[in-house]
Every structure is written in C-alpha cells, then in structure tokens.
Write a structure and sequence with these properties.
Blueprint: E1 2-4, E2 10-13, E3 19-21, H1 32-35, H2 50-73, E4 91-99, E5 101-122, E6 127-132, E7 139-140, E8 145-149, H3 152-181, H4 186-212, E9 214-216, E10 221-226, E11 233-234, E12 239-255, E13 268-273, E14 278-286, E15 297-303, E16 315-330, E17 336-337, E18 343-348, E19 354-358, E20 360-365, E21 368-372, E22 377-383, E23 394-398
Helix pairs in contact: 3-4
C-alpha cells in the first residue's frame, strides 16, 4: 500500500507494515515556503561586454560628423567644364506670295418659277352655257371669246327696257308741253324726268348683262383649266376656268436679312432651271417686309420666255452679281482656326515671324476660294501651318522648291 507521511512524501508499506521512501521519485528542492525562511534580495551582476557597445556608438557618431564636415574643411574641386547649349532649329514651312485681285461677288439662292400672270375665269352673270369656243391647253389673246351664255332672258329684258324707255320719253315730252300751256305743274315734269332716267338706267343694265353673257380672256395666256360644257348652268361669280401667262416667267426667291442691301431693282441675274435651261433675267422686285416665320424678304426676277419652253412651277437657281471686291484666291486646305475659333490663314512677315489674319470667304469655286481680310500682297504659309504658332520665327521656303 501507499500512504503519505506528515511532510506529504509518499511512503510504501512493506509486508511488515513499516513505511519506506518510494524509489525513483525526483528530489524537490525545498522552497522558502517549505522551509519557512525569509525571501532573498535580487543581486545584479554587471556584464563586461555591455560597455563595448557604448564605445562603438560614439565612434560611429564621430565618423558621421567628420564626413559631413569634410565638405567645409576640404572644398570640392570645381568643375570647369563649359556646357554648350545648341540653339533649337527653326521649323521649315513652305510659303507662296499671294496678290489680291478684283473679283465679282455674287448672291446665290434657290427659287421657283411662277407665271407672270395667273387668274381665275368667272361667270359674271347666271345662265345656261350656249357654246364653248376654246379647249383646255389652248393659247388665247386678250379679248378672245371663251364661252357664251344663252341670251334668251337677256333679249326679253332688253325689249322690256327699250319699251319702258320709249314710254318714259313720251311722258316727259307730254309733261313739258302741258307745262308750256299752263295746264301741268313743274312737279309733273320733274317726275317724268325721273321716270326717264330710271328707264335709261335699266337699258344700260340690260346692255351690260348682254356683255356678261360672253366670257372673254382678260390677257394673253394659256387656258390651264376649263370647267365648261354646252348646256351647263353657271351661277354669277362661279369659277369656270384658269388662264395662265408664262411669257415672261417670274422667279421668286427668299433673301436673308444680311443680304438684302446687296440687291436692287434692275440688277441682272442668271437663272438656271432644273430642266437644264439657263436664261438671263432682271430683278423686278425686292421686298421691304420680312416674312414673320422665316425673317426673309421676297425678291422676284423676270425671265423672258417668249417661246413658252420653260414651264411654271419648276425649281431654279438664281445668281445675281452684287459688285466687285479685292480678294485673294487660295486653296481651302491652308485655312485654319485661331484660339478663338476665327477662320483665317497664317502668314510670314519680313522677319520670318508667323502672323494670323482673319478672313471672310466672298466666293467659292471648285478649285479654290476667294477671301478678304489680307494685305494687298502677303506670304501665305501653304505647308506646315499646323506646326507653327503666331509670333514664332520660322524658316520659310518657296512652295515650288518644297
């Protein structure tokens, strides 16, 4: 059996009952708590190698301070080598000398050919159509009879008006004779004269009605439409046809506000029709009141069309010379924009310095444009303008050599 003694050490009983210490147990060093003694104070022992690190740090500080101060004690050797800076090469550009020339300015606009005169034919009185003397598409001259209405009613009215006129005249004659005899009064003569005037008016009205029975052409032209058939009844004021005069033609165009002052009556114009015809015309009208929707002004150009070869209603292009201006001719490829977005060209002055001139295009052609805003003679940069700036000195060369 195993038991513990009073000190807590395991004991082994043998068969005789005596206790002996157990074998193979580690020896435990008694502590102060076990022995009951007071705790001992800590004792520090100096390391002899610790003082060596202090000397090494001090030595490193001295070396750093000496290295930093060596620049003041022993000045560095000055570098006497001279650096040569190369001057930048000037940008090479190609220039050509341009001289201003007189060029004619034009105003160009799209328009429409219109008849010189266009009117609706109407019946002046009511009646049945007795005969139609023309057909649609026929050319007529002023006064030609287009149609006649049945005169039966008018003949009866004419006979009645004539008889009334005779009676009124007779009444007036009798009243005057009786007045001379002293039998009738002046009032009766006056009344007879009024009756006669009324009869005369009735006769005139019948005669005018007889004239209205005949529908005639008011001017030379072509019967564009005709809505009349023999036996048909027409009312007074009713539309019976349309008469159009296209000799000459009138081409109407719309002129912008900024171009209105360039046009005037009697200016010559070239008109190119969509059919391929080209005619010379004259400005006959320039409007003075703008359209509220488009703010443009109406202008009309009269174009001769004696042969009636050009129909009305087709599109036309109008070109009007508006004067001469001094301008330079150049290729559109050399035109550029400045920093403010103005259209212009770059030039080279006498000191080979780049300058920029704003321009205005006054005429455009297939092979180039005419511009204003440049001096009379100027050297224009034709190649390389995109690589130089205003105020920069360049190396110009003639465009032919380039």
């Amino acid at each position: 059996m195993t038991s513990e003694n009073s000190a807590g050490t395991p004991q082994t009983r043998n068969g005789s009952g005596s206790s002996q210490p157990q074998k193979n147990q580690p020896d435990v060093e008694p502590t102060d708590a076990m022995t009951g003694d007071a705790p001992k104070a800590l004792d520090f022992v100096s390391d002899k190698g610790a003082s060596g690190s202090t000397w090494i740090a001090a030595l490193l500080v001295l070396l750093i301070v000496g290295w930093m101060g060596s620049g003041f004690v022993i000045p560095a050797k000055e570098d006497t080598t001279t650096v040569t800076r190369e001057e930048p090469k000037l940008v090479a550009v190609a220039v050509t000398t341009s001289t201003a020339e007189n060029v004619t300015q034009f105003f160009q606009a799209e328009g429409q050919a219109m008849p010189d005169r266009d009117t609706v034919l109407r019946a002046e009185t009511s009646g049945d159509v007795a005969e139609v003397l023309v057909s649609k598409g026929q050319d007529v001259v002023a006064g030609d009879v287009i149609a006649r209405l049945d005169p039966s009613n008018n003949d009866a009215d004419a006979n009645r008006a004539t008889e009334e006129l005779v009676r009124a005249q007779r009444e007036l004659d009798n009243a005057q004779q009786l007045l001379e005899r002293g039998v009738a009064t002046q009032d009766r003569v006056t009344q007879a004269r009024a009756t006669l005037a009324s009869a005369q008016a009735q006769v005139i009205a019948v005669e005018q009605a007889a004239e209205a029975l005949t529908i005639t052409a008011p001017f030379d032209g072509r019967i564009e439409t005709l809505d009349l058939d023999a036996g048909e009844f027409v009312s007074a004021g009713g539309e019976v046809g349309r008469l159009v005069d296209i000799t000459p033609l009138t081409v109407a165009i719309q002129v912008p506000q900024q171009s209105l002052t360039r046009l005037a009556v009697a200016q010559s114009a070239t008109v190119r029709f969509i059919t391929g015809e080209e005619r010379e015309g004259t400005v006959t009208f320039v409007g003075t009141s703008a359209a509220s929707e488009t703010r443009t002004f109406l202008a009309e150009i009269e174009v001769p069309n004696a042969d009636a070869a050009i129909p009305a209603g087709i599109s036309a292009e109008v070109i009007i010379p508006t004067g001469e201006v001094t301008a330079h001719f150049m290729s559109p490829s050399i035109v550029s924009l400045d920093t403010e977005g103005s259209l212009g060209v770059k030039t080279v002055d006498g000191d080979d310095v780049v300058a920029f001139f704003p321009i205005e295009v006054v005429k455009a052609q297939i092979d180039g444009i005419w511009v204003t805003g440049l001096p009379e003679t100027v050297d224009v940069i034709t190649v390389g303008q995109g690589f130089v700036n205003v105020g920069e000195t360049v190396a110009p060369a003639a465009a032919e050599a380039n």
